[in-house]
Design a protein that fits this description.
5 copies of one chain form a homopentamer. With 95 residues, the first copy, chain A, is mainly beta. Chain A has one domain: EutN/Ccml (OB fold (Dihydrolipoamide Acetyltransferase, E2P)), CATH 2.40.50.
Chain lengths: 95, 95, 95, 95, 95
């Protein structure tokens, strides 16, 4: 899984029927020091994340292992909202 | 999923029989500010996208989760045409 | 899928029994302007491609969705020989 | 698999139910000379690794092949704690 | 598949039970001109490769398609020892 910050939403009215009702969030990848990285991903939200929150997302076939995304053409899913993380014993991020 | 702009078409008459009838589109990857990126991908179109449109595409095994691409040697599929997206509350792109 | 040019062959007499009889081709990745890129991949040929031809190849589990490669330890397969592609209405490559 | 050093922990109380009880560790990727690399990953721990230890982790669908992670939305798992490795006959790392 | 040179071994006594008995080799990625690249991978050996040999390895779920690695948390497998390869008609490498 990777860390990311929810930075926005994507709206797509014309889509694969299996993607109907999925919330699509724009995730900015962040580094372990909580700084923004260049990469981004559009992920389905399975946990009710909001803009500004730091999340964990899973990619590839693992993104289809939630009740919401099973058997859907989805390759990225937010599967956790991060409360805190530590590096070498120091708290780097706290919600 | 990633954002991309449909920039062209690929024609291949000699191909794996399972790929017969698939429309192959050339997708230029774009960044969240709507600028072109270096990467590209050739994706099967499952939603009737046209050249110039901004789309979302899924990669890997997730690209085989549409009715059209199931069990086919396809690793990228366009599964939505993007209407709009927002970053930090500002609309970055609107169709 | 990605575009590549067949640039050579790989011979490996000692291999996983499931790979016996597979033709292994060396593919140079190319960009949408038909220029060579740095990356390469060794792919199984499912369509009878020859050195110099431009092909499409699929990666990952999608590379095992041809009759030839099913259930084999193969993560890249040539699934089409490209005739032509267009970018923004201009033909970039024609066989 | 890739080599990494466990550098921290991630806490996420709100998450996909299937991820309940999983220990999430922050892994700094390391090179074969034991130096830190830029990349990181958050992986589920299936072997009881501790901060500071060098581990091997598997990514993608292979990360779901442990008893702990089966059918869960997890795309990285620590599946071994490294004792030692050699390059060209020289021991580079020893626990 | 990608080309690599076996450069060493990794020993891990504490590991996922499903990885018991697997030989873990350190593979330096090489380019098509036989030069070393920056990347590496730790792969399970299914063909009896030795240090110094050039091999082909498969990644992702394809790495679990050998009798040895089936259903194990392994994302890279050596599935062939390379005898020779040619680029544009010239032999680049011969064992």
């Amino acid at each position: 899984m990777l860390l990311g910050r929810v930075t926005g939403t994507v709206v797509a009215s014309r889509k694969e029927p299996l993607m109907e009702g999925m919330t699509l969030l724009l995730i900015r990848q962040i580094d372990v020091d909580d700084s923004d990285q260049d990469g981004y991903v559009v992920a389905v939200d399975s946990v009710g994340a909001g803009v500004g929150e730091v999340v964990l997302y899973a990619s590839g076939s693992s993104a289809r292992q939630t009740a919401l995304t099973k058997d859907r053409p989805c390759d990225a899913v937010i599967m956790a909202i991060v409360d805190t993380w530590e590096v070498d014993g120091d708290v780097v991020y706290s919600k």
